[in-house]
Write a structure and sequence with these properties.
Two copies of one chain form a homodimer.
Chain A (H helix, E strand, L loop, with lengths): L3 E2 L14 H7 L4 E5 L1 H10 L3 E8 L7 H6 L6 E4 L1 H8 L7 E6 L6 H6 L5 E6 L5 H13 L4 E4 L9 H6 L9 E3 L3 H10 L3 E5 L5 E2 L8 E6 L8 H4 L3 E4 L11 H12 L8
Parallel strand pairs in A: 1-4, 3-4, 6-7, 6-11, 7-8, 9-11, 9-12, 10-12
Antiparallel strand pairs in A: 2-5, 3-5
Chain lengths: 270, 270
């Protein structure tokens, strides 16, 4: 694959990479930034998202050959020296492996649910506003073969730069959609035949004793407040037993435990 | 509890809080920084570490009454306005709840192992150099009632400021000790009658099918390279089954799954 050497930070071809951290805050008008070789591998192999360009630190080009072979053939690959990369990004980019992807139009929840297999496992998130947690939950969803992640409107964007990075690219692989409200999410999942389990410290059944049906949605809420009581009342509840005196589990850790338990990965799903 | 109002960032009584981020790098000569109400609650109730002082943003004092009641009675509580706090810390401290604790002398591994109950669960870490992972693993260890965390010398410090914060104070509660080498760790645990399971993607038994004896040590290695092959050869191995095409699990997430499975918390340990 040919690459284009860029010598001027003001070159219009790399302006999508300008002021990376500031743009995290104001948004990118339908684009996202993918960082690092593992994430680019996922971006290129999952093929859920169009790729606009790749930008590499010049000394990284040699090690990226196999990754670039996976990229769509027409994607421009820009290569720049450290000073140019730092100047355009607005901070020191010591790793220097970047791509710009294009977001998809929001997928209607019913379309996504309608596309899922007869036996399905989905993650339902309510109020997950922390990008580290969002990324970590996507990573667990991918690791345990969840078919989709469904969000309520108070969740943060899974395609935020840090969420993608923490997800190790899983946010570019696992399909997701946003419901109009958390209540709408419950209604749509019920209409599509899903059992719905809310993870809650006061859940009725311990996770290891819970059994799933063909279609299962697992709900996770924010760490501090958890899922809203009115929502929990409409769902079956599952708890993760913890030691007395320290009943505090990170929501991503809770998702790892529950997804592992209910996953068919390894052929021993419950 | 009486508090002392501090008006001068150069006041010698608060110099342990000076240049917080720079001191993270050079070390604190036997001290550590605890941040946030939940962490201070744990510092004061676990009582594993001596407390030198507390420093609060003045508008946080009112909400800290119940926490301060848990503190040792002779601990000085300093209160400062935002400008003084920011000036001494060297950056904007918008939360403003801090304490300085004193590290304990390193506990010999045999002493710690000798103090554990007949039925015991410990976490053994080899090469965990990331403070987020260290903190998250301690949080999981506390949540699932692990009796100790054992480190090899290539692990980072669990009392590093960020590790304590991510652990939500668990690093101040769960006893830990450092072995001279990873091989020494294996030998000492064997001498104390521990079964030793290494978590590895190529483990012989899937986690949910593994059964423990009275004393169990669970080994976790770095995310990239995992546990050294020579070490794995000396241990029983356990895997966490993952989906094809995304066999990537964060080490803290792996610890959550394994600790939950082997924990007696909830009265249903395996």
């Amino acid at each position: 694959m040919d690459s284009v050497y860029i010598e001027d930070p003001a070159d219009p071809r790399i302006q999508a990479y300008a002021n990376i951290k500031e743009r995290d805050l104001v948004g990118r008008q339908g684009r996202f930034v993918a960082e690092g070789k593992v994430v680019l591998n996922m971006l290129f192999t999952a093929r859920r998202f169009a790729v606009e360009s790749v930008l590499l630190l010049e000394n990284r080009l040699a090690g990226m050959e196999r990754t670039l072979e996976l990229a769509p053939p027409d994607v421009p690959v820009y290569v720049a020296p450290q000073a140019v990369l730092d100047a355009v990004a607005g901070f020191h980019m010591h790793r220097g492996v970047l791509a710009i992807g294009r977001k998809r139009p929001p997928e209607p929840l019913d379309d996504l649910l309608g596309s899922l297999p007869e036996r399905a496992l989905v993650v339902a998130l309510v109020g997950i506003a922390n990008h580290d947690n969002m990324g970590a939950i996507f990573r667990n969803a991918a690791a345990f073969g969840a078919d989709a992640v469904l969000l309520d409107p108070t969740c943060c964007d899974p395609l935020y730069r840090k969420a993608i990075r923490v997800s190790v690219g899983a946010a570019l692989k696992v399909p997701f959609a946003t419901a109009e409200t958390a209540n709408d999410l419950v209604a749509r999942l019920a209409a599509h035949g899903f059992d719905q389990f809310a993870l809650s410290p006061r859940g009725e059944v311990e996770c290891r004793d819970a059994r799933r049906g063909q279609r299962l949605a697992l709900y996770f809420g924010t760490e501090g407040e958890g899922l809203p009581g009115a929502l929990i009342d409409r769902l079956e509840t599952v708890r993760i037993a913890m030691a007395a005196g320290f009943d505090s589990l990170n929501v991503a850790a809770a998702s790892a435990i529950a997804l592992h338990h209910f996953s068919d990965a390894g052929g021993t799903g419950v």
